[in-house]
Each structure stands twice: as structure tokens, then as C-alpha cells.
Specification:
- The chain folds into two domains: 2-97, Nucleotidyltransferase, domain 5; 116-266, ATPase, nucleotide binding domain (Nucleotidyltransferase, domain 5, 2-Layer Sandwich), CATH 3.30.420.40.
- The chain has helices at residues 37-49, 86-93, 104-115, 174-178, 180-187, 191-196, 204-224, 234-238, 240-250, 256-260, 273-283, and strands spanning 2-8, 12-19, 24-31, 54-61, 65-66, 71-72, 99-103, 123-129, 133-139, 142-143, 228-232, 264-266.
- It has a five-stranded mixed beta sheet with strand order 3-2-1-4-7, sandwiched between helices. It has a five-stranded mixed beta sheet with strand order 10-9-8-11-12, sandwiched between helices.
- The two termini are 20 Å apart.
- The longest helix is centred in the C-terminal third of the chain and has 21 residues, at 204-224.
- It is 37% helix and 22% strand.
- It is globular and about 55 Å long.
- By secondary structure, the chain is α/β, with parallel strands linked by helices.
- This is GLUCOKINASE (GLUCOSE KINASE).
- Its EC number is 2.7.1.2.
- Belongs to the ROK (NagC/XylR) family.
- It is an enzyme of class 2 (transferase).
- InterPro entries: ATPase_NBD, ROK.
């Protein structure tokens, strides 16, 4: 059995061929042309049709989108992809009929759930702390996306103590307070420069960010009682101390029983999490 996994991003689209054991057999990175989806997707089709025996295609796709039907809405970084029916496009251009799609954070959650050997009895909460902040939740080996697919869309979650808003965010937005973009907007500095100065300077913006992340962790513990929380994303990956401080503070904001059931991990999947999640999307009954 051979599986194609596709990760559509605002800059690049990556496509990989896997066997049933998740061994990567082939791989290609393609430029995501912002105003002409065919320039990108025709290369994806060429890759797929260059391999025999492909049984399914899993797609990690940006939002907003209708993932069941495979239709993009208004993508900020890919304006020319609006109303593109990407699942139908692939069905028409290839011989593969088993095609599923989900957003990247949900698929990264799924990838880590199986990577860390979790089962139907486990609940995995995933957070990506990068330019923005995203989340995914796995319950009973299934992606939990809510009634209309917007579950775990946490960017505007009011997790900060403060009520500051602006830049298109609501009051106390977790993305405004704790993401790379938010740190830059609130400080007028590059996020990494700001974070690197933390050990040398007392920085209120970083303290508020850590407090906000601690609240986010405690909120997840209260609402879904996960036994695994995984962090990924460039800010988390290169500033683990930032996440660890938030984890330490979060303990004081949840019941001891909730804390005792929790395990925290950082991603071990590098940049392949979305591809691996797309693989699992079509090989396991998890959607």
C-alpha cells in the first residue's frame, strides 16, 4: 500500500510518498504560487501520477476551508486559491478516489498522538506556538473539531489577564499576547530578539506572555482533561524555557488531580508533523 501526503503552505507545498509502515519513499517541495493554484497543484499531480499503486491521499490544508468538501475560502497568503475545489481537482487529475483533508494543527495533533504511542483511552492536546498560535485535540483516536469544524481555533481565546486588544485581535487574545507575531506587535521588536533579552532584562511583555500561556494550559486541563500536551512551532522549539515557565505556573491554576494525570512533551517530528498527520488521516478511522 502506498499513501500520498500533501502539506499545502503559504510559501511551499510539500508532497511525500509513504508505504504502509510510514517509510518515506519519495518527497518533493514545490513553491505555492499565491495567485495561481494550478501552477502548484499540477506539479503535485505530476508527482502523484509518477507513482504506481497509490491508494489514498491525505491533505494538510490551511484555512479557512471546508475540509469535508475540499474547498478553500479566503486564504490570506494564497488569494488566488479562493473557491478552489482541491479534492475534486485531485480526483479528476489522478486515479485516486480516497482523498481526505484537515487543517494543519489538527493533523499535527494526530501525528503526535500516534508518535507518542497514545491509544483510544488517551486525550492528546497539541499547541503550536510560532508566528501564530494553533491547537488540535485528539479524543478516542479521533480529531475533535467541533460541530462546524472550528473547534480548537484558539487564536482569539481571551487567555491573558489584561484586556488589551488591537491589530485585529480581541481583548486578551492568546495570539496577541504569546505568539511570535503578537510579541513583535506589542514590543516593536522581533520576537526572537525580545525573547533572547529576557534573561538580562526584566520584561513585562514576556512575563505577560508566559502568564497567558499558563492560563491556556490550565484552561485545556479544565475543559478536556488531557493526559498529554505537546508543544511545537518555532517559538516553542527554540525557546523551550518559555514554555517550561508557563507549564510550571499552570500547575497552580489546576486541580492536583488534573496535574498528576498530565505529561508534557516537545515535538520530535521536526517539520514532518503535518505530512505524518495526513498519512494517519487516511490510514486510520480518525476523522
Amino acid at each position: 500500500m502506498k499513501i500520498i501526503a500533501i502539506d499545502i503552505g503559504g510559501t511551499n507545498t510539500r508532497v511525500a510518498l509513504y508505504d504502509e509502515s510510514l517509510k518515506k519513499l519519495d518527497y518533493k517541495k514545490i513553491t505555492s504560487h499565491p495567485r495561481n493554484y494550478e501552477e502548484t497543484m499540477n506539479q503535485v499531480v505530476e508527482f502523484i501520477n509518477g507513482h504506481q499503486g497509490v491508494e489514498a491521499i491525505g491533505i494538510s490544508a490551511p484555512g479557512p476551508a471546508d475540509y469535508q468538501k475540499g474547498v478553500f475560502f479566503n486564504l490570506p497568503n494564497l488569494p488566488g486559491w479562493r473557491n478552489f475545489h482541491f479534492i475534486d481537482f485531485l480526483k479528476q487529475k489522478t486515479n485516486v478516489k480516497n482523498i481526505k483533508a484537515q487543517n494543519d494543527a489538527n493533523l499535527m495533533a494526530l501525528a503526535h498522538h500516534y508518535h507518542f504511542k497514545r491509544t483510544k483511552d488517551d486525550v492528546t492536546q497539541f499547541f503550536t506556538v510560532s508566528t501564530g498560535i494553533g491547537a488540535g485535540l485528539i479524543i478516542e483516536n479521533k480529531i475533535f473539531a467541533g460541530s462546524k469544524g472550528f473547534g480548537q481555533e484558539i487564536a482569539n481565546l481571551p487567555a491573558a489577564w489584561n484586556k488589551e486588544s488591537g491589530f485585529g485581535y480581541g481583548q486578551g487574545s492568546i495570539e496577541l499576547y504569546a505568539s511570535g507575531k503578537g510579541l513583535s506587535l506589542r514590543s516593536n521588536m522581533k520576537a526572537q530578539e525580545l525573547l533572547s533579552k529576557y534573561n538580562y532584562e526584566d520584561n513585562k511583555i514576556i512575563e505577560e506572555a508566559i502568564e497567558s500561556l499558563a492560563n491556556l494550559i490550565a484552561i485545556s486541563a479544565a475543559f478536556v482533561n488531557p493526559n498529554l500536551i505537546v508543544f511545537d512551532g518555532s517559538v516553542a522549539r527554540y525557546n523551550k524555557w518559555y514554555i517550561m515557565k508557563a507549564i510550571e505556573i499552570s500547575r497552580k491554576r489546576m486541580f492536583e488531580s488534573q496535574w498528576n494525570s498530565l505529561e508534557f512533551k516537545f515535538s520530535e517530528l521536526d517539520d514532518d508533523a503535518a505530512l505524518i498527520g495526513a498519512f494517519h488521516l487516511v490510514t486510520k478511522n480518525n476523522s
